[in-house]
Design brief:
With 280 residues, this protein is mostly helical. Helix content is 51%, strand content 0%. The protein has twelve helices and no strands.
């Protein structure tokens, strides 16, 4: 198996930009390497771009996306075009369907697709910054776990930093404290006792506190059930007179007593198909 940069064919011998063996690029499943789906409605752009940057570094593929090579001059190189097509397929497999239909165009090379996808999230920076700020500062824990809530805040902060917004650790901590549920009130008041508090430290402190509160609720419920059982069950029902015999209703044809509108109803509405899945 050839190592990155080694010659694997006559075309590679004449190619000063020789990259990895195309077999090494075709074989890997991209989803374990880019385990996120790029979508308009979720804050995944920063993570998606970061994972692909690592893929480019691992397989020496930057020349396909940094415009250092004119791809029109490489059309006769089978290995280059094979790797280029594989990269485009990886992009399409890790974006939502609506993004796929937004950027897909016949004949695009890797650089064109990469530029389009990044442009969708960076060209309208002001609008996207305003949207992310509103979502970040308006975040509340609600039904989320501490881990889920902290993850959501961290993703939003990373997206804002990627747009040039300064999100300090102090701001991240104050937003976290303001948004956690009221039942964490005592724990929140103790956060000032943590020496040199950081976002990971506060998260690690709140996680066992969340488990403790869940256990307390479980014990309270169990105690209430035991107390109800010790008092005895509900009194038995008082004897009643035997019920009068019931006779079946007279046979009638269906529709005799139904409103006429029943017979003119249309077919039930069909659920709208989701367009958020990855894979084009």
């Amino acid at each position: 198996m050839a190592s990155p940069g080694s010659s694997t064919s006559s075309s590679t011998n004449n190619n000063p930009f020789a990259g990895p063996d195309p077999v090494l690029i075709r074989d890997p499943d991209i989803h374990p390497r880019v385990p996120v789906c790029l979508d308009y409605s979720t804050s995944t752009y920063y993570a998606w771009k970061t994972y692909f940057s690592l893929v480019f570094r691992k397989y020496h593929l930057h020349d396909h996306v940094d415009s250092s090579v004119d791809s029109s001059l490489m059309l006769g190189d089978d290995e280059w075009t094979t790797i280029d097509a594989t990269l485009i397929r990886w992009f399409y497999l890790t974006i939502s369907r609506d993004l796929f239909h937004t950027v897909v165009t016949d004949g695009d090379d890797t650089l064109a697709v990469w530029t389009k996808l990044n442009g969708l999230f960076t060209d309208n920076q002001l609008q996207r910054r305003v949207f992310l700020q509103q979502e970040f500062f308006g975040s509340h824990q609600l039904d989320s776990s501490i881990d889920g809530y902290c993850m959501r805040l961290k993703k939003l902060a990373d997206e804002l930093r990627d747009l040039g917004e300064t999100i300090s650790d102090d701001l991240l901590l104050s937003t976290l404290t303001a948004g956690i549920n009221e039942e964490f009130g005592n724990a929140a008041s103790n956060l000032t006792l943590i020496p040199e508090p950081t976002f990971p430290k506060v998260k690690a402190y709140l996680r066992p506190e969340e488990r403790r509160m869940k256990m307390a609720k479980t014990r309270a419920t169990h105690t209430a059930l035991i107390a109800g059982t010790s008092r005895g069950g509900p009194p038995p029902p008082s004897p009643q007179a035997p019920a009068a015999p019931r006779f079946p209703p007279p046979a009638v044809s269906y529709g005799q007593y139904l409103p006429p509108t029943v017979f003119f109803q249309g077919p039930p509405p069909q659920p709208a198909s989701s367009d958020r899945r990855c894979g084009g």
